[in-house]
Design brief:
Length: 366
Amino acid sequence: EKGGYDHFMLKEIYEQPKSIRDTLRGRLLPEQGLIKMGGVFEYREKIVNAERIIIIGCGTSWHAGLVAEYLFEDLARIPVEVEYASEFRYRNPVITEKDVVIAISQSGETADTLAAIKLAKEKGATIFGICNVVGSSIARETHAGAYTHAGPEIGVASTKAFTAQVAVLALMALRIAHDRGVLKQSYYHQLLTELDSIPEKIEKMLESDAQARHISELYKDAQNFLYLGRGFNFPVALEGALKLKEISYIHAEGYPAAEMKHGPIALIDENMPVVVIAPKSGQYEKIVSNIQEVKARNGKVIAVVSNGDSEIARMADHVIEIEETAEVFSPLLTTIPLQLLSYHIAVMRGCNVDQPRNLAKSVTVE
Ligand code: M6R
């Protein structure tokens, strides 16, 4: 059932070209310039006219929500708040009938997310769900929604569910942006074609994991890791750190790269590996200077960069290249090497990657 792979997690990492393709199938129609999402668009008016969107989730699903914040604000120009379901539900949040809530959950059974949905529903909000498990409690509790078609995810560390969530959220953001008339037509069409090419690009990136293995070998005994990213790739830094800590038990923290100087920079010395997510983007020069700050303190830089980047290659200790893509979709690619890195490190440390200690696949307790 592991399809020849040593672990479910590795199988699920390698399934991503397919799971994203399955998630986009029938929804993304680049030749016709269309995005079709039946389940969501029963409530189309609500979301297109929303004055704000609140996104709730836990763990990795919350990270997908953070990516969506950048997508919805940048493309659709709708203000977004992303909340941990557990904090949202207990703080007497201000919610009205005008609000649109998007709940994200792979399992569809996370207790805190379910309770947050019930609360928002009582206050009259319209709730969309993005779940992977068909017929799950969250899928049933929401007004409308879209499934991620990632297929069953067995590994406790979420991998293919995350990229499928981001793919669905990208579809929603593009469709809403289009309906609101806030995107240039040519840019919209360019993005549809680009999104369609993502599975192929991931396939290419998965052809070899030699670089991730090599880096894992060198840093598997580190006690701490720092992950830095900016903009669309700030949530990827959080996700990379979560993946490493949950399966390898190495302490890891993700930060927006610009926050480094407000505290975490004090941690940097020659024993600190710093993973910097630095594909070509609007903030490229800024991240280059963040890398210089790490190097000036003898930190070890592992940089995830766009194909052929020579500037960062000269500064970093190691680089992992990703395929070229639009900045808005870059999280779908930059996530992949971080999954592989945490997987290999955990295996090399002898950890049970599919069933890490103290964790369950779905957290049905509050
Ligand atoms: O099933 P859900 O997406 O609601 O689960 C949320 C979190 O429990 C989950 O993402 C958790 O953080 C994973 N172990 C992360 O890999």
